[in-house]
Prior knowledge:
Blueprint: H1 2-9, H2 48-65, E1 70-77, E2 80-91, E3 96-97, E4 103-104, H3 111-124, H4 152-156, E5 170-172, H5 180-186, H6 203-217, H7 221-233, E6 251-252, E7 267-269, H8 272-275, H9 281-292, E8 296-297, E9 300-301, H10 305-311, E10 330-334, E11 337-345, E12 350-356, E13 361-367, H11 376-392, E14 412-416, E15 434-438, E16 444-450, E17 456-463, E18 466-469, E19 474-480, E20 486-490, E21 497-500, H12 507-533, H13 543-573, H14 585-613, H15 621-643
Parallel strand pairs: 4-6
Antiparallel strand pairs: 1-2, 1-13, 2-3, 5-7, 8-9, 10-11, 11-12, 12-13, 14-15, 14-21, 15-16, 16-17, 17-18, 18-19, 19-20, 20-21
Helix pairs in contact: 3-6, 12-13, 12-15, 13-14, 14-15
Amino acid sequence: MRSIMRTSLLCLAMVVCLRAQAPAPKPNEAATPAVPPAKGEGVHALTREDLTAFFDGMFPIQLDRSDIAGAVVVVVRQNDVLLEKGYGYADVAKKIRVDPAVTGFRPGSISKLFTWISVMQLKEQGKVDLDADVNRYLDFRIAEPWHKPVTLRDLMTHRPGFEEEIRDLIRGAPATFIPLRQYLVENQPAQIFPPGTVPAYSNYGAGLAGYVVQRVSGERYEDYVRRHIFEPLGMSGSSFEQPLPKNWPAHPAAGYSRAENKMLPFEVVEPAPAGALTTTGADMIRFARALYYGGELDGHRILQADTLKETWTPQYRANPALPAICLGFYQQVRDGTRWIGHGGDLIAYHSLFMIQPETQTALFVSYNSAGTDRGVSVERAELFNEFVDRYYGPAKDLPTVAKGTPAAEVAGVWWSTRRGVTNRLQLGNLTGQQTASVDKEGRLVIADAKSINGETIHWKPAGPDLWVYPEGQRHLAVIRDAHGHILRAASDFPAVQSERVPWYAQTRPNMILLWSSLFAMACVLWAAVLRLIQRRNIPRAEAPLRRLRRAQVAASVAWLAILGGMVALLNHLNDPDTFPPSHAWDRIFLAMNIVVWIAVLLSVWMIVVLVVVWPVLPRRLWLRVRMPLIALAAVFLIWFSFYWKLIGPVARF
């Protein structure tokens, strides 16, 4: 998926600013009660007729505007299926329409909800302890660099401390199946935060939880979910198998980058517990009912009511004004109404599943195309906002205060906690930063943070260390340590936060020095070409100077070759039909290692030659200035290569 590629490889920069960290509630603490839906003027009745008219007006516009092939949407309240409808095409070429009963969509990370429920089933049976060292349940070991174990509770709240990795995350079929254990052993990420402290959304963590289910139950993960969730709930059109079983009763929707483009291959997701589900709109209705009926549907129970209540109990929120993350499920709040569920994204498919527990209402929507530059992610957010505003609103501005924490305290450069640090994804952090500034009225502005309508957001103070975007009902806050220093920033999505970028890693100085250094190398080559052209008209340089120039030319050729290769690579990654890196990319990174090492060694040689010949170089001022500057450019490029991981382990990305 184009958005996963950019978000992961070009750096998941979810930069935001939020407040003092509230302690996590105790596991059995009651959830904060939701504000009941408003009953004021302008609120529409949630009826089949009104929903049909509403979505019939909205979906055709969205599909056309963002070049999306098709979508499915279901709305269910208690026993009433208020809407179960498909829009557009499941297969554009064959003109097969979306049918919510039999068209299978790939809801991405919504798959994780089934993993978390599986964990809670085992917890309910006393087979796992959410606060025990996860190594207790594994046949390989998770490293403990912080001398603190990772627990299942850490995995379920996305706080195991793992850095981002995308190797083999999504591959196009046909792809060699990678057993779950093999994937987890080969791709164990480094821990960049102490477990249980910093939210940093982790697909690997969900895969690890799924493997615990497999180990403890003695059943293959895919079989466990089928036997203990799908079959009891009658979800016959749902499966984690990749490829899908030949006798699978539903028909998978084709996935597209855009509706006008060719069909994408079936997306093979690793680790499967993080995002491999294929399901239908009809099955998601049954899943939703089982949840808001306390874990039981049609006499078949998948969780005890108390266990489900614990699953939905807030575990962590960065600020009392922000939505919480529960045990895998996370909250969204709009118009004073609390929803709980999960979103999901693959390359082609983009989905949302949300439940309003107090009114026993559920919404599931899934699109089978990434869409145009506006992007289906914007369409999905717009749909949810419009739906809640219409039936639970009316939308209203959030309260602000005349004075709050000065926005200047938050000004600066930020990057996401969900990032690669020790692996190749570190390079993406160079372009995945966000700058916070203050406008003329003292409001907070995050560069490139736009509203759904594409307008720049001006965040208004709403209290100490808290800001709101009234029109969008969104929050920002900063988290401080015991001494009042800002540690991190957080938004309404509780599974990711942001940190300040050190000055030496900020995009602006790095890019200035990078292009200046490469310009210096280009000048070396240009001067060499001119000398070659004019060699009959200029005197031959002395031997030490000739030796130094040869070293400079060799190093310059190597660095400029690397630049050309990086430009070609990034253009390839931005191709909407390009899948994230797999084992095939190992060769690319091996070649990059070789070329960069050659450039580093040539640069070291150039610096050594400069030191050796410096005493005998001509005393011309410009020569004496130019040669050290070229050496400094090489020193910077060497540092750049190591810090931003142009050189590194071949299989870590």
